[in-house]
Amino acid sequence: MANKDQQFVTSAVKAVDFPKSNLARIAFFGRSNVGKSSLINTLLNRKNLARTSSTPGKTQTINFYLPVDQSYQLVDYPGYGYAKVGKSRRQEIDQMIRTTVQDLENLRGIVQLVDGRIPTQQVDLDFEKFLNRVGVPHMIAVTKTDKVKKSDLSKLERRIETDFGQNVELVEYLLTSTVTKTGIDNLNAWIKEVIGF
């Protein structure tokens, strides 16, 4: 377990290597380069704890982090559906994601990130169906909304509700930006709610 000055716990690629902990866990999923590491850094109020890169596919391990109060863990999963690695490697990563999440003890919530700048991707819709079957509270964080024109934000919200509403009756989502800090307080509040803090 990390000490009071550490917020990175460990990395793993197999469930057997997950750190033992009684803490509630919140898992983060999304396509490569959607902004998972940036969002985790913002939630933890740290600049470079979770490594960010302009190169998609940088994160290929499951990384565990602690907030300052050490009341729960954030779990950063590799990006799913990344096309620029070899097909067999992409399948390995996607399979690792799907199998290990079933073994993630004390999982209390899932945050799925989708890029607000581009049309909804089929891989996001397919992965949301899988995440819904995991059976824990699920939030969609629409990222990089600072790069969306203000006049287009209501159109973006309607698209998210329509596209992801096909999979579930009620879509819970937040528009977020790590630049303007839009949605960060609300996401923190949702995390605290689902872990019962």
Question: Could you please describe the fold and organization of this structure?
Answer:
This is Probable GTP-binding protein EngB. It holds the Pfam family MMR_HSR1. Keywords: Cell cycle, Cell division, GTP-binding, Magnesium, Metal-binding, Nucleotide-binding, Septation. With 197 residues, the chain is α/β, with parallel strands linked by helices. The chain has one domain (8-194): Rossmann fold. It has helices at residues 36-43, 87-101, 122-134, 153-164, 184-194; strands at 8-12, 24-30, 62-65, 72-76, 107-115, 138-143, 173-175. A seven-stranded mixed sheet has the order 1-3-4-2-5-6-7, with helices on both faces.
SSE layout and pairing:
Blueprint: E1 8-12, E2 24-30, H1 36-43, E3 62-65, E4 72-76, H2 87-101, E5 107-115, H3 122-134, E6 138-143, H4 153-164, E7 173-175, H5 184-194
Parallel strand pairs: 2-4, 2-5, 5-6, 6-7
Antiparallel strand pairs: 1-3, 3-4
InterPro entries: G_ENGB_dom (IPR030393), GTP-bd (IPR006073), GTP-bd_ribosome_bio_YsxC (IPR019987), P-loop_NTPase (IPR027417)
Cofactor: Mg(2+)
Domain EngB-type G: 22-197
- Average pLDDT reading: 85
Q: What is the radius of gyration?
A: 16 Å
Largest sheet: 7 strands, mixed
Compressed to H and E, one letter per element, the order equals EEHEEHEHEHEH
Tally the helices. Answer: 5
What top-tier CATH class fits best? Alpha Beta
How many beta-strand runs? 7
Estimate percent helicity: 25-40%
Q: Strands of the largest sheet, in order across it?
A: 1-3-4-2-5-6-7
Q: List low-confidence stretches.
A: 1-5, 53-57
Looking at how many chains there are and whether they match, the oligomeric state comes to single chain
What gap, in angstroms, lies between the N and C termini? Answer: 20 Å
Instruction: Give the tally of structural domains.
Output: 1
CATH topology: Rossmann fold
Query: Which CATH architecture would you pick?
Result: 3-Layer(aba) Sandwich
What is the general shape? globular
- Strand residue percentage: 15-25%
Structural class: alpha/beta
GO molecular function, one term: GTP binding
Keywords: Cell cycle, Cell division, GTP-binding, Magnesium, Metal-binding, Nucleotide-binding, Septation
Function: Necessary for normal cell division and for the maintenance of normal septation.
GO biological process, one term: division septum assembly
